[in-house]
Structures
1.
Amino acid sequence: MAKYLDTTKKAEINIRLSEFEMPPMQDVLIVGKRAPIGAEGARRMVDILSPDQYDIIKIEHDTIEAIVVRRTLLKMLPKDKLVNLILEEGGKIANESIILKMQINITIQVSRSIDI
């Protein structure tokens, strides 16, 4: 019976930021505090466009009111790590009046060694 000697897991994350355009929805929206639609407006929009596909997460931040995240991403990464990553990268270019869409591609990489 083979035993696992060494197990490592890595997540490779690529992020693309661009200005939000009505539809299509992508993986994440960053909603500024004075954006044309607020968190509640974003909730109604995603409920109409893609019911049960996104979570709205209200944020304590200087310029960002909320982020809208595709639920499948939250199943792949812990919520706090994903939110921190989104705020770290998106917060660099977001301002109070903007809505940014963000594309996130997650590739899970697993490497194992076994006795042979």
2.
Amino acid sequence: MSELEQNQTFTQWLGQHKALLFKVVRAYAVTAMDQDDLFQEIIIQVWHSIPAFRQQSSTTTWIYRIALNTAIKWANKERKHTQSTETLDQLPPILQETAIQIDERLTWLYEEIYKLDEIDRSLSLLILDGFSYKEMATILGITESNVGVKINRIKKLLISKSKQQDYHGI
């Protein structure tokens, strides 16, 4: 693959899947600076992965897999380097610079997703995007039955937490 073809593919993929990448970044990084770092890391990995793409899965599945694997590695690396005791309440609001009124329920949901472990966090994002169990299993490298069990547990956990905080209207 020539560099020109790689550039064209990268530009096309970035245009088509930008929202997917922002969603993963938002779920794995809280502060704006961390989100920038993670986004840059994912973009670099996507760029490097283009020659390895064999079209055995959809582009969306491929990019999701790269984004989630990169986010998980990044989060683990950040956790090792940061001995922070800050809670989410002490951190600045997510996407503070936007002037758009943010849906309180969506903010709550992303905060709860952020608290999940890496695999459950990834599954939550894939659920929200409507992936099948088979696609989720392929992306995350786990069995379909394990996907089902984990999704059931995530749903029960989120329902339980939403009942504790009913002001979110969930």
3.
Amino acid sequence: MTSEFLAHRPHPALRGLVAMMVGYRQTGLTPALHRGLPSPHLTLILTLDEPLELVAHPDPGQPPGSCAALVGGLHTRPALIATGTRQAGVQVSLTPAGARALLGVPAGALRSRDEPLADVLGGPAAELLDRVRGAGSWPARFAAVDDVLGRLALRDAPGAAPEVTHAWQLTTGSAGRLPVATVAATVGWSERHLRQRFTAEFGLSPKEAARVVRFDVARRRLGSAVARGSDVDLAGLAAGAGYADQAHLTREWRELAGLPPRRWLAAEHQLLRADADDPLRFVQDGPAPVSTS
């Protein structure tokens, strides 16, 4: 099996809109299912050759299908992706602000949905995919994404209400530990009003967002611990990430990832990054970005 992963620091014009960009290519895989896990970012994928085969979406009412370029909204259930024997593409992690600025819709419009990029973005989607597929190197592919998304960022798209944006920042900045009541009081809204506006904007309620952020932190810490060769201390991981105990962590993992932590690690083993420095990173993890321009 061969694996190639490369992180790219997005152009400064995309700061706050694109959290990270990763190019990936793997061959010789044993056909399996990859779980696209809940995270605080929307996912935009541009495949380089084979389309993405989605066996199940976070929204169980959405039928399976394949797509050359897609965007997925925030969700609380895993997407199941058939990897086949190879996969290659560019994954772009968008912030909710990036959804508004680059896609022209609030993240809430894509809750639990995986949609063909052209259906959301329109004409620029074809240019984006064509340029990425036509480029002959990773720097050229990243430059194409920077260029197309950079032009989209110049549009005068309306932003979210400042209170909603602040509530999101409080939720993510506290790693999902700040009580919803505290978030509501801080932004000056009732909990009910915050829940309505927050859910409409992001597609997740404040409580769901806190769960997803906490899970994302725990998943990254688990991957880092295994990469260092440390024992998998789930009790310590639970305590450090703000769960009541290991049983709480495991329940949340089952609901958000579809598997408990150790089974998830085993199931995703062959899709882990193969580089020696960071063997347990996933495409969606995004190590410290390295500019390739």
